[in-house]
Amino acid sequence: MATTADIKNGLCIEFNKDLFVIVDFQHVKPGKGGAFVRTKLKSLTTGKVISNTFNSGVKIDVTRVERRPYQYLYKDDNGYNFMHIETFEQVSIVEELIDSYDLLKEGQNVEIMFHDATERPLSCELPQFIELEVIYTEPGLKGDTATNTLKHATVETGANVDVPLFINIGERIRIDTRNHSYYERVKS
What angle do CA 131, 137, 140 make, to 5 degrees? Predict the structure, then answer.
C-alpha cells in the first residue's frame, strides 16, 4: 500500500473499482486545515479524465502495469493488430484503447500498457511526435503570413491537422500526438 506522498505522474492506481493513471497532480498545503493532493485521473477502461482530491497521508492502491514495445500491423474487423518487437507475439486491440488512433501508420512503433496480474491490454500510446506526409491541403497565398493563420491539411493516415499556410502537398510534417497539433516541418 502506498500513500499520497508516493503520487507521481504516470502512476497507475485502483480507485472506485476501476484502473486510473495519474495525469497531473498538485500538492496543496493551505494556511488553514490539513494538506491535500489535487489530481487528474484518466480511466484506463473508459478514457475519461476526472478530478479527485486526496487528503494527505491517505492510502492508495498502486497497480502494477507493464509497458511493452509493439509495432502496428493492420486494422481488421477485430480491431487494430500489433506485433511485439522482440517476441513477434501478436495482439488485437479495440479502437477505444488507442490514443490518437487516426494517426496510426502501418509499421509504426507504439507502447502498449498491460495490467500485470491479468495480462489485459489497458492502453496503447503513440510516440509523442510522429512524422507524416501531407496528402491534401489548400494552397497558401503569398504574403498571407502576417498573422499566425492555420489551414486544414489531410495527412497520409486520413487524419486532419491544422498547419501553417506555407505547408504544401507532399511535404512531411511532425505532429504532436497528444493534441493533434502541427509541431514543425521535417527537413529532408
Answer: 110
The domains of the chain are located at 2-62, 65-125, 129-185
Q: What would the grid cell of residue 141 be?
A: 497565398
Cell of 97: 484503447
3-class state of residue 95 by DSSP: helix
pTM given for the model:
0.76
pLDDT at 139: 83
pLDDT at 1 over 90: no
Closest CA to 45 of 152, 146, 118: 118
Question: Is 65-125 a CATH 1.20.1250.20 domain?
Answer: no
Q: Taking CA 101 as the corner, what is the angle to CA 169 and CA 24, rounded to the nearest 5 degrees?
A: 110
- From the candidate CATH numbers 2.30.30.100, 3.20.20.70, 2.30.30.30, 3.30.457.10, the one assigned to the domain spanning 2-62: 2.30.30.30
